[in-house]
């Protein structure tokens, strides 16, 4: 049984309510508390996943690049991700060294409180804005051979 919050609704229910009210096209993965959708920003497209962990009172949101970083570029992208993460206040980039998947993660723990639609909005929109902002830098490191420090500086100027 999912825990209920002040609104009387589970984290998954509140998240579905948010995406429905915002008019996003999404699908819930069968039998899982996960919502999947695509997103197109100014600088590219990627996949998004919202994962409700009612038992832990958490909501996680991921923006995941559709193509993985080639093995020979992973160290440079890892440096880019580390430099980009420094100073970020909400969320962070992650890269899986085993397959080169790059994602941006935002999350919230609402134990003892109520998950509001405004909280979900912040969680989602900060995430997609950061992915869209830094995507050109990631791509320049992978495809143009730009040094990670220079790529981050270009994005953050």
Provide the number of structural domains.
1
Main sheet?
Answer: 6 strands, antiparallel
| Strands side by side in the biggest sheet | 1-2-3-4-6-5
CATH topology: Yope Regulator, Chain: A
Low-pLDDT runs of 5+ residues are 1-6
The helix/strand order is HEEEEHEEHH
What portion of residues belong to β-strands? 15-25%
| Secondary structure: number of strands | 6
What is Rg?
17 Å
Indicate the mean pLDDT: 94
Structural class: alpha+beta
Backbone shape: elongated
The first-level CATH class is given as Alpha Beta
Count of alpha/pi helices:
4
Helical coverage, percent range: 25-40%
Question: Which helices and strands appear, and what pairs or packs with what?
Answer:
Blueprint: H1 11-22, E1 27-28, E2 34-40, E3 45-53, E4 58-65, H2 74-85, E5 92-95, E6 102-109, H3 117-144, H4 148-156
Antiparallel strand pairs: 1-2, 2-3, 3-4, 4-6, 5-6
Helix pairs in contact: 2-3, 2-4, 3-4
Describe this structure in words.
α2 (74-85) crosses α3 (117-144), α2 packs parallel to α4 and α3 (117-144) packs across α4. This protein has one domain (11-156): Yope Regulator, Chain: A (2-Layer Sandwich). The chain has a six-stranded antiparallel β-sheet. The model is unreliable at 1-6 (pLDDT under 50). A hairpin with a 4-residue loop joins β2 (34-40) and β3. Helices cover 39% and strands 24% of the residues. By secondary structure, it is α+β, with helices and mostly antiparallel strands. The longest helix has 28 residues, at 117-144. The protein has helices at 11-22, 74-85, 117-144, 148-156, and strands spanning 27-28, 34-40, 45-53, 58-65, 92-95, 102-109. The protein is built from four helices and six strands, in the order αββββαββαα.
